[in-house]
Amino acid sequence: MKRLVNASKNFVLLMIKPKDNVEKEAFHGYDANLKSDLYEFVNQYDEMFQEPKGLPPKRGIQHEIQLQQDCPLPNIGMYRMSVMENAEIKKQIQELLDKGVIVPRTSPCGSPIILVPKKDGTWRMCVDFRDLNKITVKNKYPLPRIDDSKDQLKNVVYFTKLDLRSGYHHIII
């Protein structure tokens, strides 16, 4: 890793910093020297691995959702939930309120919430926006061609797959 930095080579490094004492799970299968180098690197850039404290920064492009004209806004009631599911939804909503990601509002439209189990046994809160999506003006921006994207990767040395935690909370709408 140091050789790549010193040689000014282009590379991407994705590192997940383990919390508390989950070192064994986070670095399972890594050789001891590499593990040591990764810890040293992560500790050097510790500020990049902090929990977000509020909304993401404003960027050059502001995201907007355009709705079709003269269409009534959907107002769907909540789905029936168990006591445990209701408690989990309240907990997750309170966390989002505390972080400043959402604010209380009254609105003429509403969509139901569902909980989806994650592999680790926790719950992902999802909003069923299917009815809202029906009246959303579709984006006309064409997706890039897959073969062109692959061609741009021909000299790349490292690849990574990203899975953002609460990915949609990184976009201001």
Automatic annotation (TrEMBL):
A Pfam cross-reference name: RVT_1
Keywords attached to this entry: Nucleotidyltransferase, RNA-directed DNA polymerase, Transferase
Classification via InterPro entries: DNA/RNA_pol_sf (IPR043502), RNA-dir_DNA_polymerase (IPR053134), RT_dom (IPR000477)
GO MF, one annotated term: RNA-directed DNA polymerase activity
Residues of the Reverse transcriptase domain: 97-173
Source species, domain of life: Bacteria
Protein name in UniProt: Reverse transcriptase family protein
Lineage, broadest ranks: Bacteria, Bacillati, Actinomycetota, Actinomycetes, Mycobacteriales
